[in-house]
Amino acid sequence: MTGFDSTITVVGLANAEFFASALFYDSFRQAFPVPRDNCGLPIPTPPENWRQYVAFHRKHDGCIEAVAFCNWIRYGDVYIGGGVCVKRNFYRQLPKEHWDECRARGGIAQILLEAIHRELHDCVALFGYCGDKKARILDTRVGYEATRHKYLIVKWMAEVSDARKRELEDKIATIGPF
């Protein structure tokens, strides 16, 4: 049996709707966030500013399925992200050896976020909006920290002054949930 890492591929797409819409709906009971202008946020959201990531898993029978998703929108010199979701029965279908490897790496959501962080390095910060306790534990493990604003979290990707950090946090907080 091959190792777990060889069965997982994280792909960044301009629009992941084809691959991840069912996964997103199953997790949130909401329509998929199709990249578009005027998506409902009070900031510009042109499609070219969107980055959507999907973790694909190649099962033992060779079939490939989308097992995790996350959405990001570039806004100035930061990205705002959300919609992290994992296929509900993903872990149950893994062979024990693969489950052990996945768990040792923090789970598929952590693997997805770590891959995203390696790619989205062209910014000052990555912001999230998180009110879920389990998600907050994961976010902390991958380097996010709380801000002065309830639910707003940040992972700093560049060295910036404390004053600039507060300025960016306040600016992003005005967006509301994203």
Account of the 3D structure:
It is a single chain. The protein is globular. A seven-stranded mixed sheet has the order 1-2-3-4-5-7-6, sandwiched between helices. Helix content is 30%, strand content 27%. The longest helix has 12 residues, at 17-28. The protein is of the alpha+beta class and 178 residues long. It starts with 7 loop residues before the first strand and ends in a 5-residue tail after the last helix.
User: H/E order of the elements?
Assistant: EHEEEHHEHEEH
* Shape call: globular
User: Main β-sheet: number of strands, strand sense, barrel status?
Assistant: 7 strands, mixed
Q: What is the number of helical segments per DSSP (H or I, 4+ residues)? A: 5
User: What's the number of structural domains?
Assistant: 1
Helix content: 25-40%
The CATH homologous superfamily corresponds to Gcn5-related N-acetyltransferase (GNAT)
| Main structural class | alpha+beta
Query: What is the second-level CATH architecture?
Result: 3-Layer(aba) Sandwich
Radius of gyration: 16 Å
Q: Supply the CATH class.
A: Alpha Beta
What's the count of strands? 7
pLDDT average, as an integer? 96
Strand order of the largest sheet: 1-2-3-4-5-7-6
**Stretches with pLDDT under 50, minimum 5 residues:** none
